[in-house]
Specification:
The protein has about 200 residues and is of the alpha/beta class. The protein is built from 7 helices and 9 strands. The strands form 2 sheets. Strands 1, 2, 3, 4, 5, 6 and 7 form a 7-stranded mixed sheet that branches. Helix 1 packs across helix 6. This is NADPH-dependent FMN reductase.
Length: about 200
């Protein structure tokens, strides 16, 4: 079974970006993945602001990320960047916390104006945490997610984009699982690796 962590970086209790995460979680469970959510807004604010690495709740959340096989990170766009709340949590992660994990970013914004923030602001941070496989993001504006009957709806285009992104993530998880069993098999048999396997591992 694949183990996926979803991380919500919105400070808002009612949040479009977190709603996208909920849809992704449902889809991943249908694909047989185990999913755990971290809501950064639920973590102790003082511990995050003071970078208290010893705080028990923060440590549990960090461990969830460390043990995940993939991470979906959702953020609102704030002031042409991702949220400060998300950054305060990412700052608590060990340097290589995202190594060997596919990472799928989600973002919502008031308009398309700051869409590139994911590339110029979030991606370098993910790279500094060891992420080498950042999947194509899912981005929705407020117009793409109107309130209908007291909850958020998504346009067909966003629903399709989300489904496509989840398929890509599931494929990436399958590839990673194949790679792991290849490595484990090689370790067990202690055989000289084939050139194909060598290339594949790299
Ligand atoms: C403090 C603040 C700053 C914002 N800055 C931007 C911005 O720079 N660019 C943008 O496209 N939207 C901006 N927005 C709009 C939010 O990104 C948008 O409402 C988003 O859907 C909120 O996501 P959430 O519901 O998950 O919190 C801002 C909203 C707030 C509250």
């Amino acid at each position: 079974m694949s183990y996926v962590v979803t991380l919500s970086g919105s400070p808002a209790a009612r949040s479009r970006s977190t709603h996208l995460l909920g849809l992704a979680e449902t889809a991943l469970r249908v694909h047989g993945a185990a999913v755990r959510r971290i809501d950064a807004r639920e973590l102790p604010a003082v511990a995050l602001m003071h970078a208290d690495f010893g705080d028990a709740a923060v440590r549990r959340a960090v461990e969830l990320v460390e043990h995940a096989q993939a991470v979906i990170i959702a953020t609102p766009l704030y002031k042409a960047s991702y949220s400060g709340l998300l950054k305060s949590f990412l700052d608590m992660l060990p340097q290589r916390a995202l190594a060997h994990k596919p990472v799928l970013p989600f973002a919502t914004g008031g308009s398309l104006a700051h869409l590139l923030a994911l590339d110029y602001a979030l991606k370098p941070v993910l790279a500094s945490l060891g992420a080498r496989h950042v999947l194509e993001n899912v981005f929705a504006t407020e117009r793409d997610m109107p309130v209908v009957d007291g909850t958020y709806a998504v346009t067909d285009a966003i629903a399709d984009r989300l489904a496509e992104a989840i398929e890509s993530l599931v494929r990436a998880l399958d590839d990673a699982a194949a790679l792991r069993s290849l490595r484990d098999g090689r370790r067990m048999s202690n055989e000289r690796p084939t050139r194909e396997a060598d290339l594949f591992v790299r």
